[in-house]
Automatic annotation (TrEMBL), chain A:
Organism of origin: Boseongicola aestuarii
Gene for this chain: oppB
Name used for this protein in its record: Oligopeptide transport system permease protein OppB
Top-level taxon in the UniProt lineage: Bacteria
Pfam families tied to this protein: BPD_transp_1, BPD_transp_1_N
Membrane topology designation: Multi-pass membrane protein
Cell compartments where the protein resides: Cell membrane
Lineage of origin: Bacteria, Pseudomonadati, Pseudomonadota, Alphaproteobacteria, Rhodobacterales
BP terms from Gene Ontology: transmembrane transport
CDD domains cross-referenced by the UniProt entry: TM_PBP2
Length: 307, 308, 542
């Protein structure tokens, strides 16, 4: 297992390098430079700025300098839009926020989703099943961004229970609505996958054998059925985690949490190349890491898989 | 004489008249699907919606871009849904008829879903078959390429593509297709790997059938089950992704719109007494997504007998 | 030598000398209103600001913060008049090319250091320094300070800048051309002072809350990008006794509807009113929904460059399009915020400006439509040859609404087929700046209360003349206006030429449309530039 992990991590390096290169190229092709502004800069000032940010150098040199700074100095460069912050600052400030409510959403979606799915499967074809399925489908079908204004209207204006936005260092009243908004649709899909997976497991031969042997139902479910049920769920969770992070832009927009999602989309729209590249690499690296963890977890759930 | 009794003649005729209709796998799948009540109801519903988009414009009093100046002045009062004013679904915040706009938006969203999924399907399937069948280093390289692309967050790729190449209908399909063919390719490749070692493929090769023909004539049909199921699950995903893009302001240009854009607009004016602006597009959107879910589930149950 | 006689100034100085220490939680010294215990003002901003470095900031949100944190030579009062800031007054020579400002002796930085003339010299040199590459360096150019343009272009050292500290309390500025309104330009952030020692110690990080040192009524205590920024009372400020608000919180809320919801829930004291909602809100909350004129215009500009669209080269086409726009509907139905219709490029609210009598404004819309049809037919367009073109605007809900309304008006009245396109801000600016458009939206907020800040846009050498409109007569009139003592007539003539040539379609002039909590006192509704200072506000006890 350790050998496998190390091999995977090593294999990730060329992947990341190519990812950086691909993003770099894509971004250079996009129209609009980082210094377009309402008041056109005099050519000399523009030349100065470009020199300062190294934009006047040949592409390969820019790329090489960039790579060098990342690998040896962990420095992602200055932001083109914000004069008093560089990319490291922006990421260091936004990432913990996105990670916090992202992770909590992930936990919420997984725990509620799995519970719902298992309950539905165990009580197949009863009202619990129909309720859970309907809930899951409704949650999944709603466009996630709509949760923002609805939650704020209900909880801040009509009920007055929760603050309408902000982060406040992650105090729990500020976490509730973002987490609900972000986790809802994944809760639905996780519930459905769990349910169908468990139904399949419960109908399989070895479970039937276990029942025939007289093992109590509770033991069957927890000891024998759970692990194989969660197998497909686990492989789904990897991408879910990344979606939660990258899809969090609407949470940042509606709840003003200051997370990375907004910095990410904002930098794409305002051509802040360095921030865009930095966050892409961060997310890319995270995806690779999460995929690895998922695969390892997979092995724990399915004893037949050995690396 | 032997074989010349009346009974024998009758039997012989019965046998000759009709060849036994074989039950193919597709037939089985079709039967299973049609007996799935939930799926059939959803097919009917989706059919109704498509019918609505086709026939609806004949009943429309207003088109989708003309502003009703009087309604614009008092959206809350005069802009509410009513049959007399010809605004069956009310008006949007600019005084344009929501009925026609919803029809146009539904058409757009359906097209985006279907064409986007189709593009992902075609590209992904071809890529996956080639990679899986050829195997070895080529497969490794092709899949490594896919893995790298998968590591780039899809939102970024979509945004960048739309921003680089400009916004148009075509670009939207291309951008959405560009990020979704990847997982399709992986699944198809996996299935191809399983299939290519089967005996019947071995037999075909022994018979001298060319590699390419094997891929198209023997492997592809056996993949179709998985591919169809996955594609049907892709459609709602495409529609969801498109709604997110519209939310970011990168979707279709005015005066055309999509359900995502209408919902985002409606969500903004929820508290101002114009709830219809949200409810009508939301209803169509959610209905389409839910029906596609059930149809996808039904297809999977029908085509993959292992999965019950 | 002329002196500014300002009795209000004398009174203010006298009151400060008498220095009554505590003003919060008591009654307001002038109006006698009871003051709330919690003097915190919370308001909404649309977007994260670009910077709080006075020589670097380029957006309105940032400028609002900088105006509280720093103080320049002069300030503006609630009516937009000049009042002393760090300077107690100034004198000029006869031809207005040399300004001498006298600084007060009790102005301090938040770390206790005195504010001296050298701080202004350092700051202004920084503003033109190609090293810093400030996006607002062009502002220094239009102040006409000697050698500013040369230094920015890199042809002279920053020490050549025409500003000198005669001594710690006297600042002498030499202009390369006479500018009667130079003093009003010092209210803008680019001309604020800067703390040399702090900047040299921390470099680009000097604006972080833990490092920043400022000389205004407030210091920056918290800054969480995309979430909030907080500024609190600066006890070192020379006029601190008169500051009532203790804390100002700016919350970043992108979505205007969510902002309104949160305002209704009591989390904000001020927010913008979403387009079209003002009449309803005015009815439901008459004390809180306010609207007042602002110094910005909103227009669409034709691409009149040589490779521009053929259709627009015909002035009849331009006039027809301008006439057929029903500004009343846009202003009353789409925006519904009390914005005035615009028939001139410069807002009528600008000081010393008289818009010319406009033919368009004096007839009814029906008559305008008729004339428009006539003109368009004369130019050769009609049902069998419809006028076609594309129009672009930057992505925003209200810009979209206006663009759609305009295109519909043109379609219904003139059979015009206008194709709409929106793009994000940066791309929009680049596209427009490269004359890569046919008809594009534009808006301009005046940097100072004088018509030239608008009219300069339509002169040939202007860097913002994206439509590339060129009129020799306007160019000469504007050059004259820079040195003339009476400019009003000249500006009116320029507007008359604009009305004739119609290089732009003015739509409306801005109004500040806000929900302002009724417990906020002394909001400067009469200051058309909306240069508001938190130190002049207060919260009334409920």
């Amino acid at each position: 297992m350790l050998g496998y992990s190390i091999r995977r991590l090593l294999a990730a390096i060329p992947t990341l390098l190519l990812l950086i290169a691909a993003s770099f190229v894509l971004i250079q092709v996009a129209p609009g430079g980082p210094f377009t502004s309402e008041r056109p800069l005099p050519p000399q000032v523009l030349a100065n700025i470009e020199a300062r940010y190294g934009l006047d150098q040949p592409m390969w040199k820019q790329f090489w300098d960039y790579l060098y700074n990342i690998v040896f100095h962990f420095d992602f460069g200055p932001s083109f839009k914000f004069k008093d912050r560089d990319v490291n600052d922006i990421i260091a400030q936004g990432f913990p926020i996105s990670l916090t409510y992202g992770f909590l959403s992930f936990l919420a979606a997984t725990s509620v989703g799995v519970t719902l799915g298992v309950a539905a499967a165990i009580r197949h074809n009863t009202w619990i099943d129909y309720f859970a399925v309907s809930l899951g489908i409704a949650a999944q079908a709603l466009p996630n961004f709509i949760m923002g204004p609805i939650l704020i209207l209900v909880f801040t204006l009509y009920l007055g229970w929760l603050p309408g936005g902000g982060w406040n260092g992650g105090a729990w009243p500020y976490l509730i609505m973002p987490v609900i908004a972000l986790s809802t649709s994944y809760m639905g899909s996780i519930a459905r996958i769990t349910r169908s997976s468990m139904l399949e497991v419960l109908n399989s031969n070895y479970i039937r054998t276990a029942r025939a042997k007289g093992i109590p139902e509770r033991q069957i479910i927890w000891k024998h059925a759970m692990k194989p049920t969660l197998l497909p769920v686990v492989s789904y969770l990897g991408p879910v985690f990344v979606y939660v992070l990258t899809g969090s832009v609407f949470v940042d927009i509606y709840f003003s949490t200051g997370g990375l999602g907004q910095a990410y989309v904002g930098s794409a729209l305002s051509r802040d190349y360095s921030v865009l590249l930095g966050v892409t690499i961060l997310y890319g690296g995270l995806t690779v890491l999460v995929n690895l963890i998922t695969d390892l977890a997979y092995a724990w759930f399915d004893p037949k898989i050995r690396y | 004489m032997f074989g010349s009794s009346k009974k024998t003649i009758e039997l012989a005729e019965a046998v000759n008249e009709q060849a036994v209709v074989g039950r193919s796998l597709w037939r089985d799948a079709y039967d299973r699907f049609t007996s799935n009540k939930a799926a059939m109801v959803c097919v009917a519903t989706l059919g109704c919606i498509v019918l609505f988009t086709l026939a609806g414009p004949f009943f429309a009093v207003w088109d989708n871009e003309t502003i009703d100046w009087t309604a614009m002045g008092d959206v809350r009062g005069l802009g509410a849904p009513s049959v007399e004013s010809g605004h069956f679904f009310g008006v949007d915040d600019l005084g344009r008829d929501l009925y026609s706009r919803v029809i146009q938006a539904t058409t757009t969203s359906l097209l985006v879903g279907l064409i986007g999924a189709a593009m992902a399907l075609i590209v992904g399937t071809l890529y996956g078959i080639v990679a899986g069948y050829l195997g070895g280093r080529i497969d490794g390289l092709m899949m490594r390429f896919v893995d790298i692309l998968l590591a780039i967050p899809s939102t970024l790729v979509i945004i960048l593509l739309l921003v680089v190449a400009g916004r148009s209908f075509i670009m939207l399909f291309v951008a959405l297709g560009a990020v979704s063919w990847l997982s399709m390719a992986r699944i198809v490749r996996g299935q191809t790997l399983t299939l290519k070692n089967r005996d019947f493929i071995e037999a075909a090769r022994a018979a001298g059938v060319g590699e390419f023909t094997i891929m198209i004539r023997h492997i592809l049909p056996n993949l179709l089950g998985v591919v169809i199921v996955y594609a049907s699950l892709l459609v709602p995903e495409m529609i969801l992704a498109e709604s997110f893009i519209s939310f970011l302001g990168l979707g279709i240009s005015e005066p055309y719109t999509s359900l995502g854009a209408l919902i985002a607009e409606g969500a903004g004016t929820m508290a101002y007494g114009t709830l219809w602006q949200l409810l009508f597009p939301l209803f169509f959107y959610v209905t389409i997504i839910i029906t596609m879910f059930f149809i996808g589930d039904g297809l999977r149950d029908a085509l993959d007998p292992k999965d019950r | 030598m002329k002196h500014i006689r300002n009795s209000a100034l004398a009174t203010l100085v006298a009151t400060t000398m008498l220095a009554s220490p505590v003003l919060a939680a008591g009654t307001h010294p002038t109006t006698g209103e009871p003051l709330a215990d919690d003097q915190t003002f919370t308001y909404r901003v649309l977007d994260e600001h670009s910077s709080v470095d006075p020589q670097v900031v380029e957006d309105v949100t940032g400028a609002e913060v900088v105006r509280d944190l720093f103080e320049g030579l002069m300030n503006q009062d609630e009516d937009g008049n000049l009042v002393p800031g760090v300077a107690t007054g100034f004198t000029t020579n006869d031809d207005k090319t040399v300004y001498t400002f006298t600084l007060r002796d009790n102005a301090k930085w938040s770390n206790g250091d005195p504010v001296v003339a050298g701080d202004f010299v350092y700051a202004w040199q920084r503003a033109v320094d190609p090293e810093l590459s400030s996006p607002y360096a062009w502002y220094m150019e239009i102040t006409s300070i000697e050698n500013a343009a040369k230094i920015i272009a890199g042809d002279a050292p920053i020490t050549d800048l025409g500003v000198k500290a005669i001594d710690d309390r006297t600042l002498e500025i030499t202009l390369s051309a006479p500018l009667p309104y130079f003093a009003t330009m010092t209210t803008h952030s680019t001309l604020f002072p800067a703390p040399r020692s702090v900047i040299e110690a921390h470099g680009a990080d000097w604006t972080k809350p833990e490092n920043i040192v400022s000389n205004g009524a407030y210091v920056l205590t918290e800054h969480l990008p995309n979430e909030r920024s907080v500024r609190e009372r600066n006890p070192m400020y020379w006029d601190n006794e008169n500051t009532i608000i203790d804390k100002v919180v700016a919350l970043v809320i992108n979505d205007e509807n969510v902002a309104l919801t949160r305002y209704m829930a009591g989390e904000l004291d001020r927010t913008e009113v979403p387009a079209g909602q003002f009449p309803r809100l005015k009815e439901e909350h008459p004390e809180e929904a306010i609207s007042f004129p602002r110094l910005c215009n909103y227009y669409y500009t034709f691409n009149l460059s040589n490779d521009g669209p053929e259709q627009f080269k015909d002035v009849r086409v331009r006039k027809a399009l301008a006439m057929a726009v029903d500004r009343k509907i846009i202003v009353e139905n789409v925006l519904a915020g009390g914005q005035p219709e615009a028939y001139s490029f410069t807002p009528a609210a600008v000081a010393n400006f008289e818009p010319p009598a406009s033919e368009m404004a004096s007839i009814t819309q029906a008559e305008r439509d008729a004339k428009a049809k006539e003109l368009l037919a004369e130019a050769g367009y009609g049902p069998d040859n419809p006028l076609k073109f594309s129009m672009i605007y930057n992505t925003s809900e209200s810009h979209k609404k206006i663009a759609v309304a305009m295109s519909q008006m043109w379609k219904q009245k003139l059979g015009v087929e206008a194709e709409l396109g929106n793009m994000e801000w940066k791309v929009f600016l680049e596209t427009r700046g490269n004359q890569d458009f046919e008809l594009a939206r534009g808006a301009w907020c005046g940097d100072y209360n004088e018509a030239s800040t608008f009219l300069d846009l339509l002169t040939t050498p202007s860097g913002y003349n994206d439509g590339k409109f060129s009129s020799a007569e306007i160019d000469s009139l504007m050059t004259q206006a820079r040195t003339a003592s009476e400019t009003s007539d000249l500006y009116t003539r320029v507007e008359a030429i604009i009305a004739q040539e119609q290089p732009v379609i003015p739509i409306y002039h801005y109004a500040g449309v806000y929900m302002l909590d009724s417990d906020v006192g002394n909001w400067p509704v009469n200051n058309v530039e909306q240069n508001w200072y938190s130190k002049n506000l207060y919260k009334i006890a409920e």
